[in-house]
Design goal:
three-stranded antiparallel sheet, 20% strand, single chain, alpha/beta
Length: 168
């Protein structure tokens, strides 16, 4: 397997819990955990496969740590790198921008040559709009711990199996 990094905030409890389940799905030693809050360009570029934890904050915004990294990201060449996104959102509390942060990050990496994998179905979710949707699918794994926590384990297991086939 090519070098794979799992990037997320070590201080974001719900994202950390999801990241731990994702890492377990990859198997011990097959994925490096990287704190997105202290991320450097060199760390980011050291990986061929990147799994990014991108929860949506407030009204469709990136978390501060990803927002602060985007100027560095805008100058990087990401050709040949594979990206998979997961994030948390609240489809009932924020139905007009559910999971927008995944869409924002996917657009950024694609514009720099990165390949996005791990698209998932929007079926079973209820929301008005999302920047994370393209051609009827989410650009990653959307988890709603506020309203659908009981579905998280199954969603993560299926998603990890799918992206694991591509991240070799």
């Amino acid at each position: 397997m090519a070098k794979t990094g799992l990037f997320y905030s070590f201080n974001s409890n719900k994202t950390k819990l999801a990241a731990d389940k994702i890492a377990a799905g990859f198997g011990k030693g097959n994925i490096d955990m990287v704190n997105a809050e202290t991320l450097t360009e060199e760390e980011f570029l050291a990986y061929s496969n990147l799994v990014l934890g991108v929860p949506t904050w407030f009204d469709g915004e990136l978390p501060n740590y990803w927002d602060e990294f985007t100027p560095a990201l805008e100058g990087l060449d990401l050709k040949g790198k594979i990206f998979a996104f997961f994030g948390l959102g609240d489809q009932k509390g924020y139905p007009e921008n559910f999971g927008d942060a995944i869409g924002i990050m996917a657009e950024l990496v694609e514009a720099r040559g990165g390949k996005v994998i791990g698209l998932t179905s929007t079926e079973g979710y209820t929301f008005e709009s999302s920047r994370a949707v393209r051609d009827g699918q989410f650009l990653g794994l959307l988890l709603d711990q506020e309203n659908q926590a009981r579905l998280t384990k199954k969603r993560i297991e299926g998603w990890v199996a799918d992206i694991g086939k591509v991240m070799k």
